[in-house]
Amino acid sequence: MNDLNTLSRREVDFFNCHGFLHIPAVYSEGEIEAMTEELDWQIETWANASPGWSGGWRRVYMSEDIEKRSKLVALHDLHRYSRAWCDAVTHPKLAGAMADLIGPNVELHHTTLHAKPPSTGHPFPMHQDWAFYKHRDGRYVDCLIHLDDTDDGNGCIRFLDGSHREGPREHVVNYPDGRPCTPHLPTKDWDLEHTVPVPAKRGDVVVFSIHMIHGSRINTSKDVRRLVRVGYRNPENEQIAGQSHGRPGLMVWGRRPRCEGQTPFATNV
Ligand SMILES: O=C(O)CCC(=O)C(=O)O
């Protein structure tokens, strides 16, 4: 008997063993076309280009000159700006896959755009997403929706195979002088060279555990590299701190079980 919705047993086993999974062609050409059109509108209208993540890691990953010019274009919660993105994050093929990995119930946690501009677009140091939105257990999956084909040349995602199994790690969150910086793993202990690249096609989704150690290289190509990360959790996996803490999300699969003592949502949340 197959009790799975979207994935095969082999895919679920691969995810549990390696901590990531490449799911090809989640979106049809028509769907990805509509998502791209809306994304480009959001980039023009709402998104912010900034120097990106801070920290001492920048001078390990980038020369002085590139470090000054490197930018990241980001926007949170795309599903609040365009209907096409609301459809994308509630897509039954993706939501069913999440239920197969962390279900039976699945709650949307957040959506984040990462567009790496051509030639100097922002690399990512080794880190776990857990450091950005801490949850009590591992029933949380991040999905990278690909709007462009990726490879190492434009900064595809890279994973430290199986690293999710050891759970959360302590991250660097300050410069040596005590000023805060973006969480990342110490560059002397964690090297992007040891990771596996996972190139993907437009319309594919690459998913990974909240405890997976990962990063990506600079975009050296002449085109922008657009990825949208979508976080999903089992609603019984309580968030402890970080991005969107305390904010209830949409249920994209199943229902929200009631824990003892839990009150219904207030009208001012
Ligand atoms: O966009 C990328 O290349 C990396 C994204 C990433 O590390 C993340 O979303 O946690």
Structure, explained:
The protein is α+β, with helices and mostly antiparallel strands. Helices cover 20% and strands 28% of the residues. It has one domain (9-242): q2cbj1_9rhob like domain (Jelly Rolls, Sandwich), CATH 2.60.120.620. 2-oxoglutaric acid binds next to strand 13 and strand 14. 2-oxoglutaric acid (AKG) is lined by residues 114, 124, 129, 155, 157, 214, 216, 227, 229.
Task: Please name the CATH topology.
Answer: Jelly Rolls
Figure out the total of helices.
6
Roughly how many Å is the radius of gyration? Answer: 18 Å
Mean pLDDT, all residues: 96
Question: What is the fourth-level CATH superfamily?
Answer: q2cbj1_9rhob like domain
Name the bound molecules: 2-oxoglutaric acid
Order of helical and strand elements: HEHEHHEHHEEEEEEEEEEEEE
Summarize the structure.
The chain is α+β, with helices and mostly antiparallel strands and 269 residues long. The chain has helices at residues 9-18, 29-45, 58-61, 64-69, 83-89, 92-102, and strands at residues 20-23, 48-50, 72-76, 106-116, 124-127, 133-135, 140-146, 157-159, 172-174, 180-184, 196-197, 205-209, 214-216, 225-233, 239-242, 251-253. It has one domain (9-242): q2cbj1_9rhob like domain (Jelly Rolls).
